[in-house]
Specification:
alpha/beta; about 250 residues; 8 helices
């Protein structure tokens, strides 16, 4: 596969000098990254390195202590995740964030419910669209009406990914999307991530699987204990270099 170069194109997302502390703990110290349309950047690092925190800063769950976030050239500061969503940013969180007591289709349209006249929920239309989407993405669930708490971990992850895929307009942030998945399901998700790249979205994916990172990404960004260790073009690095950046052992 040919890798695009991004020289001259404006980044979809620009993070400049992002800093985040929780009380006395510095979770992110001076992080800067540009992300372009049609680009997959993998964010790697050991447990507690600050990866999820960074995604939550971009999506408005956490406010950065310092630094700036620019979306399509405009400074943004989302006060909550729904603001980020209305700007075209979708997230698959590590801790999933689905409504457990609700059906798959209600989760798919959470906060964006389809209504009929008189403000009634248009359930039939939401069910049809959900069914079409999960079929397209080959997410195996009993039905669009199944309740989330009755699904397996992998099925829930499939639903979360389908939802993000459906609504993302500019940027999609995936926090270990295949951590709970088997081999076949993982391959499907990787195929879908590639399809998002073809749709010209910008993609930031967190993964502990370096095989996956090397299969999917254009660039790899390494965090260690909140420090940004470096960014490499995937084609110009190898697992040994990335492992030593992650661990600090040479
Ligand atoms: N809401 C919070 N309040 C206090 N500390 C937090 C909070 N969220 C994260 N942290 C701390 O920030 C650091 C980074 O956590 P984060 O969840 O971003 O790590 P991570 O790189 O995603 O790790 P993992 O690979 O285990 O998911 C950790 O030390 C964690 O304890
Ligand atoms: Mg995490």
């Amino acid at each position: 596969m040919t890798k695009k170069t991004h020289a001259g194109s404006n980044p979809v997302l620009e993070l400049k000098n992002i800093h985040k502390a929780f009380g006395g703990i510095v979770a992110i110290d001076d992080f800067s990254l540009d992300l372009h349309a049609g680009e997959i950047v993998a964010l790697v690092g050991d447990n507690g390195a600050g990866k999820s925190t960074l995604i939550k800063i971009i999506s408005g769950v956490h406010a950065p202590t310092a630094g700036s976030i620019t979306l399509d050239g405009q400074a943004v500061s989302f006060s909550d995740a729904s603001k980020a969503r209305s700007s075209g940013i979708e997230v698959v969180y590590q801790d999933l964030a689905l409504a457990d007591q609700q059906s798959v289709y209600m989760n798919m349209f959470l906060g964006r419910e389809k209504l009929k006249a008189f403000g009634m929920l248009d359930r039939r239309s939401m069910i049809e669209e959900t069914q079409q989407l999960v079929d397209e993405l080959d997410v195996r669930i009993p039905s669009a009406g199944a309740i989330i708490r009755d699904l397996s971990g992998g099925q829930r992850q499939g639903v979360a990914i389908a939802r993000a895929t459906h609504w993302a307009k500019k940027l999609i942030l995936l926090d270990e999307p295949t951590a709970a998945l088997g081999v076949a399901e993982t391959a499907k998700v990787e195929k879908n991530v590639h399809a998002l790249k073809e749709r010209n979205l910008a993609i930031l994916i967190i993964s502990h699987s370096l095989d996956q990172v090397f299969r999917l990404s254009d660039r790899i960004c390494v965090l260690r204990r909140g420090q940004q260790i470096g960014v490499r073009e995937t084609a110009k690095t190898d697992k040994n270099e990335i492992v030593s950046m992650i661990t600090g052992v040479h």
